[in-house]
Amino acid sequence: MKIKADKILLFFLFLCLGPALFQPLQREGSLASAGIKEGIEAKQEKKNEASDISGLLRRLGEKISAFKSLKTDFIQEKELAIFKNKIILKGRIYLQKPDRLAWHVDKPVKYSVVITDKSIRQWDEDTNQVQEIVLAKNPVLKNMLNQLTVWFSGNYSPLLEDNNVQVLQKSPLIIEFTPKETNIAKKVIKNITITFREDEKYLKQIRIRENSMDVTTIIFLNTELNAPVNSSSFEVKGGV
Questions:
Q1: Where in the chain are the domains?
Q2: Inter-CA distances, 78 with 38, 48, 133, 212, Å
Q3: In terms of CB atoms within 10 Å, which end of the chain has fewer, N or C?
Q4: Whether CATH 3.20.20.70 fits 5-20+30-234
């Protein structure tokens, strides 16, 4: 099976759904006095919900984001709407704050991408070549990749501006992010569902549902927080 390197990098970019704070929707048009009261109550309810969500994500961030380094195994399952069989990738993820993220696919193909604040380096066994993109020459890509680390670092509050967020389940905690109409990811992503570990110190699973009805699920296994990470883990060929 052949998987293009740029396809996997594109998947990374679609995980970046944007920064900042949730803003309740404003109702338009004139209302009768009774309707005005209902509108005020609805707005207050939305503000309360936004405050609850914001507070929850802030508490999660405080609990999760304290680690300095991370290494975890992963299984990525891709369910294509037009096929019955799943595409399954297995590999490892390494993160070292503030600005290094490595994603190594081991099976069924070998592929690596290493992202820093300065560049993206990627390698795949099909070409056996290392490609590098200097981020100083591509500030838009740099901004998107900076936001990517949000999903792995645990600081989820910045995602509230461009996504509607709701709690689907409290134990274990499951949160759904749905891109707003103004979010460019809305063209591709239907929603992203995050399942947390029982101790809520890290993720257990990310599920991305696309508008095409394709579904990608990333399951995290054997996750170690603040584990020693070798420098070779952040080399595109040294990590495979």
A1: 5-20+30-234
A2: 44, 37, 26, 12
A3: N
A4: no
Looking at the predicted structure, is the pLDDT value of residue 232 above 80? yes
Q: Do residues 192 and 205 lie in contact, with contact meaning Cβ atoms separated by under 8 Å? A: no
Contact 160, 57 (CB under 8 A): yes
Kindly indicate the confidence band of residue 14, based on its pLDDT and cuts at 50, 70 and 90. Answer: very low
Mapping DSSP onto H, E and C, the string for 25-47 reads: CCCCCCCCHHHHHHHHHHHHHHH
What are the backbone dihedrals phi and psi of residue 55, each rounded to the nearest 5 degrees, phi first?
A: -65, -40
Q: Do 173 and 64 touch, CB atoms closer than 8 A?
A: no
* Global pTM value: 0.74
How do 86-96 and 215-225 pair as beta strands? unpaired
Over the chain, what is the mean pLDDT? Answer: 77
Residue 40 to residue 33: CA distance in whole angstroms: 11
